[in-house]
Amino acid sequence: MQTIPSILEKDASSLFYQINKLSPYFKRFQIDIADGIFVPNKTVQIEEIKDSLIKDCLNKDSLSFDFHLMVKNYKTTIKKLEELKKLIKINLILIHFSAIKNCKLKIENYSSLPIGLTLNPQDQVEDLASHYSLNNLPTIQIMSVTPGVQGNPFLPDTLKKIEQLRVLGYKSKIFLDGAVNNKTLPIINKLKYKPDVICPGSYLTKAKDLKRNVEYLKKFVKL
User: What is the DSSP string of the chain?
Assistant: First the structure.
């Protein structure tokens, strides 16, 4: 398993503070973008990130980013990311299956950047497979909490989706996002089918002893 920290912050200065704090240990990050509509919480927006990057508030040369879009208007947000990629390296965009499943346009037509899909706790793998050819998706992210706010409780039943995807023949990367910490990692590590990537959030961003938490992660995953 690989670790990609998930960062959910309300403004650009807090976002860059977390990235700079974690960058001695990690070089790839998942940035959560929430609009306050698709989920109750609202985070830093793409325009704020772009403006701050232009002012060079981040040592970004060696870093790369995924963007997890918890937004209703994902098409507009993706267009903004197309502009942002001129300033930073963007690996992947993740949008929610529940936001897109009624749209007939192929998701690969939305952007020149790779687009994966995120499954909320209530979303079913069978429903996803009925809408999309799974192996056309570069990444599927499973939410193991109700999305929107860091600190929501872990939902262990969501882990079954990893096995369901593999049994259906999905061969690309599976991300697990939500309540990944010292209490849940032993559970995750016992799975027959493990995620390829875990995305811890508050376990790192709110750590009282960051070095200790990073050392604990090393027991299970590749940093």
Answer: -EE--EE--SSHHHHHHHHHHHTTT-SEEEEEEEBSSSSS-B---HHHHHHHHHTT-S--TT-EEEEEEE-S-HHHHHHHHHHHTTTSEEEEEEEEHHHHTT--S-GGGS-SS-EEEEE-TT--HHHHHHHS-GGG-SEEEEESS-TTSTTPPP-GGGGHHHHHHHHTT--SEEEEES--STTTHHHHHT-SS--SEEE--HHHHT-SSHHHHHHHHHTTSB-
Q: What is the mean pLDDT of residues 162-169?
A: 98
Instruction: Specify the pTM.
Output: 0.95
Tell me if 223 is assigned to some domain: no
Q: What is the CATH number of the domain that holds 176?
A: 3.20.20.70
Is the per-residue pLDDT at 15 higher than 70?
Answer: yes
Count of domains for the chain: 1
Retrieve residue 4's tokens.
């990609």
Whether the per-residue pLDDT at 57 is higher than 70: the answer is no
* Domain assignment present for 102: yes
Q: Does a structural domain hold residue 193?
A: yes
Query: Which residues constitute the domain of residue 137?
Result: 2-218
**Mean pLDDT of the region 31-58:** 91
